[in-house]
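Appendix B. Raw example, untouched.
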Amino acid sequence: MKKTIALILALLMFVAFSACGGDTKTAPDVGTQDIENTAAPEGGEDVQTGYSANIPDDTDYQGRAFTVYAYDPYGESNITWYDADFSATEENGEILNDAVYQRMVFVEEKYNVDVISAQISGSGSFAKLKKSVTAGDGAYDIAFLNSRDGATAAQGGYLINLAAINNMQLDQPWWDQNSVKEMSYMNQLYLITGDIGTMYKKSIGVLLFNKQMTSSYGLDSPYELVSSNTWTIDKFVDMSITVSEDLNGDGKMDQSDKFGLLYYCDFMALGLIGADIKFTTKNADDIPELTFMSDKTVSAFEKYTKILFDPNLSLSWSKIGVPNEDLMAMFSNNQGLFQFNEFHSITHMRTMDADFGILPVPLYDEAQSRYYHTINPHVAAMFCIAKDVKDIDFSVNIANALAAESKNVLTPAYNEVYLKYKGARDNESEAILDLVFSTLRYDLGYLNNWGNIGGFTLSMTNAYQSDLTSRYAKLESKVITAIEKATSNYEELAAG
């Protein structure tokens, strides 16, 4: 991993210097026009595809409707989480929209189907899906739910076991193989992620850093630390504590001042995951077991408290009760060396005057062989199929067709253009994006939040509570009981 990251970063820096004199960069395959006005390649059916689902070429569904239960928890009023994967109705010159539309047109024309998005608004729940299954309506051919609603839906018998479906093609690269492996329970699989959607990618937590501040304070290059495998919690904390300043001299640290870190309380949980701490670990029977507490867990927690629990060094928008946008504005105004946020925040930084970079969540120490990241279980949309689906072969074929074409069109639009050339400012960050997307961990303990194991460190962080061992001891039995209940539910599902 160390050598691979170093090689990627070195090659990218060389290419940037050779092609652009080291000052600017050229986005691949989009020419030299203004990226804001550049659409994805035109002509849906003419797109050259590198991936293709295993579906007979003469398949013709005679204009049949294919209805998607699209994940849309808050409706159009929330631009961040409004469905971006199936809502496009025409090309409008916006890269992601056009890629979504072209993917849909390609699949519609190739298999003679009509893809319809059912925008399901309302707190991200699966209420309408549950209602459809209960009534046996078969209203949705595929669906998207967040991990916690999805777990409830699966255990309630509302979803189909994807691992038991013929031609589901789970081994294909358009499905995230980390999710295929880690989201299973007793070898049953109800939720996965992959190229078919981008909504889950928006929720991945990462660190942003202010390049102007690292330079002015004479700090080490974070990119060099990543490439040398020395981007650790200790290094992150050491850098963070050097820049805090009471800018207005009023004797208190608030939104008018400068901090080493701007963050949200879930950084603690994601930091622990990044340190290769597993909330649960699956045994030989593919059943999760509680493995959260250890000396390493306590050590990593204490390392993070040095910065997260010091109001003179860091500022948490969840603790002080202000919108995320307030701290993003502070970061843009050079009031934070680091900002912990999710991928969706990166595209909002395009107007920031100072350059910024993207970093993975730190390693526990230099002996750790790889990085780890995860999704936000409250909003990350995961693929599933409802139990009452009318034609499983139809659902599976078109789902794979959409996913395969997404890998050809949608994922490049999102990764290569929408994030890298609209959001990230440098080629090194592009390598970090690839690194993050390939190192997702789907820890069922954290994602399902059994007995509040996934949430208790968040409340502790907001309250600056450092008694991890005693707090954990109070909920341990509840977590074990919740896991045993889940196991019982999956045993019933396996029994039919």
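End of appendix B.
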